[in-house]
Design brief:
It holds the Pfam family PK_Tyr_Ser-Thr. It comes from Prunus avium (Cherry). InterPro entries: Kinase-like_dom_sf (IPR011009), Prot_kinase_dom (IPR000719), Ser-Thr/Tyr_kinase_cat_dom (IPR001245), Ser/Thr_kinase_AS (IPR008271), WAK-like (IPR045274). This is Wall-associated receptor kinase-like 3. The protein has 151 residues and is of the alpha+beta class. The strands form three sheets. A three-stranded antiparallel beta sheet has the order 1-3-2, with helices on one face. β5 and β6 form a beta hairpin. It starts with 7 loop residues before the first strand and ends in a 19-residue tail after the last strand.
């Protein structure tokens, strides 16, 4: 909790390793360019600690995967809700690809990287493997979730 009462989420690297540090730096650079209602907002970072730390808005209802794979009587995933969530994700990706200052390619869209806010609205998260501007020739992300443009 911040001094102003806001609850935040803190992302901290488990292991100090050069590739993870560059992923954190990359995430800061990518997220500092983004302002969209369906993308998790980066509030701040600290790179002067033993391991880098990112501070995000808190998204209270977990990830989409939990609701797809586990029965939840509080929030059933009807076809209408699934379609709304898909539209929200598509809108965020459209913004990232076409409306951001530079095109941003997430490269790891999957249900565990889609968070649900207090009103169960989709928020795209985890930009560690994202790239802006040009796509490099190395493919990163979770196999099976790559953008078809890679193939």
């Amino acid at each position: 909790m911040l001094t102003d009462g806001r609850i935040v989420a803190v992302k901290k690297s488990k292991i100090v390793d050069e590739s993870q540090f560059s992923d954190f730096i990359n995430e800061v650079v990518i997220l500092s360019q983004i302002n969209h209602r369906n993308v998790v907002q980066l509030l701040g970072c600290c790179l002067e600690t033993e391991v880098p730390i990112l501070v995000y808005e808190f998204i209270p209802n977990g990830n989409l995967s939990q609701y797809i794979h586990e029965q939840n009587e509080e929030f059933p995933l009807t076809w209408e809700v699934r379609l709304r969530i898909a539209k929200e994700i598509a809108g965020a990706l459209s913004y990232l690809h076409a409306s951001a200052a530079f095109p941003i390619y997430h490269r790891d869209i999957k249900s565990t990287n889609i968070l649900l806010d207090a009103k169960f609205r989709a928020k795209v998260a985890d930009f560690g493997t994202s790239r802006s501007v040009a796509i490099d020739p190395l493919v990163h992300g979770t196999f099976g979730y790559f953008d078809p443009e890679y193939f």
